Amino acid sequence: MILVILPLGKEAQQVGNWVARVIMYSAASVLGASTLAFLLGLAGWGLHALFPWVRLEWAVILLGVASLVYALHELKFLHLPNPQVGWQVPKSWQRSSRLVGNTFYGYVLGMGIFTFIPFTSFYVLLGWEMIAGAMSIKAAVAIGALYGLSRGIPVVAGGISMLRGEYPLPMSNWLIDHLGWWHAMNGLALLFVGTFLIGSLVI
Amino acid sequence: MADSIAEQGQEVVPARDYRALVIGLFVLTLLMVVLGVWGAGTTAGVVRPWMDIGLLLALALATITGVSKTSSA
Lengths: 203, 73
What we know:
Helix content of chain B: 55-70%
Distance between the termini of chain A: 43 Å
Order of helices and strands of chain A: HHHHHHHH
Structural class of chain B: mainly alpha
Largest sheet of chain B: none
Largest sheet of chain A: none
Low-confidence stretches of chain A: none
Strand content of chain B: under 5%
Strand content of chain A: under 5%
Mean pLDDT of chain A: 91
Number of strands of chain A: 0
Structural class of chain A: mainly alpha
Radius of gyration of chain A: 19 Å
Shape of chain B: flat
Order of helices and strands of chain B: HHH
Oligomer: heterodimer
Largest interface: A-B, 64 and 38 residues
Shape of chain A: globular
Number of helices of chain A: 8
Helix content of chain A: over 70%
Number of helices of chain B: 3
């Protein structure tokens, strides 16, 4: 995605043009992720209102177990189902205007549920937004907004490297080459989160 | 003769040593579990996913997940 937003070659000299695209992609990503978080939070709030006898501790334990199990998946100890739509945003969205196209990309990719889900920590995050939303929809939206913003960070980092006169290609390649490390990092993060959530109710 | 030339032409690729990687990952895994248990001990049995440390954890996970997802494609 970094190289879809950031241009290579002569186009890179039109700084104002691609900086606007980076900003719009990131802003739309925040908006998309926040929208989904709001809807999930609302669903959590609704479920809590419908079933008030279901204690939130149970939901926390469920989230903790899911975190631990998916940590094992990310660390390649287990192979679990990884449901996803796997749709790819069409190139045609950029036909009329790259700025508009990239903004739509940001919104859809920020939501994250329509495209590939390479990291299972995303499922835990969606569950978390729902549980947090049961008590505070603001908290659910905050989680979603930060997720959306984080989706823009690699693109912004690529943009900064371009402003410093470097091509973003080596950085993008480096990030993709280290896919195993990203999975390990997600696995370790899930392990910590899972141990924390379950431990807090057991210890 | 042909075999000798073929042998000379074969590239000798040293086997990569994964021991450090496996041990490192194992140590990090243990560290995460220990940190998780230690962190859980500080909450005194109350963790709220929508505020305080619960929300902080979610925000950290959101950052890691978001950056990873864009970096991988």
